[in-house]
Amino acid sequence: MIWIALPMYNEEKDIEPYLTKVKAEMKKIKADYKVLILNDGSTDNSISIVKKLTKNMPILLIHHKVNQGLGITMKDLFAEVIKRTKDDDIIVTMDSDNSHDPKYIKPISDLVKTGRFDVVIASRYAPGGKEVGLSLFRSFLSRGLGTLLKIVFPVKGLRDYGIGYRAYDAKVLKAANEKYGASFIEATGFPGMAEILLKLRRLKKLRVAEVPLTLRYDLKKGDSKIKIGKTIIEYLRVLTRERFRFF
Q1: Taking the CA atoms of the chain, what radius of gyration do you get in angstroms?
Q2: Which of these CATH numbers, 1.20.1250.20, 3.90.550.10, 2.60.40.1880, 1.20.58.1120, describes 2-244?
């Protein structure tokens, strides 16, 4: 079983076309799957749109009453999805803003199925990967922070620390949740995606592979939710906390 775990916050412009593409891809590859969506306090029409789609897709929808940020949402999303998984299941995480093409679900999941990897990442920075529609500043910022993380926390096979498009062996997430509990992801915002990998790295010798991703940010119709200054500060906090582990 493939569990597709999606955080969602005010994605009324993107969630329906995106889930429609997910449904078509899973039918194409003939995979047994379920979608678990954690709505992070959306105030637009995202919820009603998803509820309509549950009539024709295996979707479970759960909620934060108020917006709490991507990091906390991912922590709670993992806690909910691992309650429902078996050890041989695969958990795929993606953004719900239509920037992550579902065609990569099969190659990243197939690599996890081999048993040789704990996490497989659809990576912008793997040979053949690229970004479309991302500003030069955002691209430079992402690459700069990624380079810093790679220097301080090297993991064989890992280049893209920040992308959310990943396939996880369910067992490794269960082990991390058991060890770290509420402290698994302490960052509230986007740096939580990097923190996941750093915590898994501390848990065990992490086995990672990447497949090249074309990030289609040009297909995203909704507004960006990233706050640059806050994100940089939180990245530095995550890096310092994980490097010295004292706060």
Answers
A1: 17
A2: 3.90.550.10
Residue found by looking up tokens 């640059």 in the block: 228
Query: What percentage of the chain carries pLDDT values higher than 70?
Result: 96
In 3-state terms the chain splits into helix, strand, coil percentages (rounded to 5) of 45, 20, 35
- How far is residue 46's CA from residue 213's CA, in Å, rounded to a whole number? 26
* Cα of 75 vs its chain's centroid, Å: 11
Q: What is the pTM of this model?
A: 0.91
Residue 197: CB atoms within 10 Å: 22
Which amino acid is it at 126?
Answer: A
CA distance 205 to 223: 38
In the chain, what are the domain boundaries? 2-244
Residue pLDDT, tens place only, 149-178: 888 888 999 999 999 999 999 999 999 999
CA distance 7 to 96: 7
pLDDT per position as a tens digit, 65-83? 999 999 999 999 999 999 9
Sign of CA dihedral 45, 49, 54, 57: negative
Backbone angles phi, psi at 117, to 5 degrees: -135, 145
The token pair that represents 39 in the structure block: 């709505």
Residue 224 DSSP symbol = P
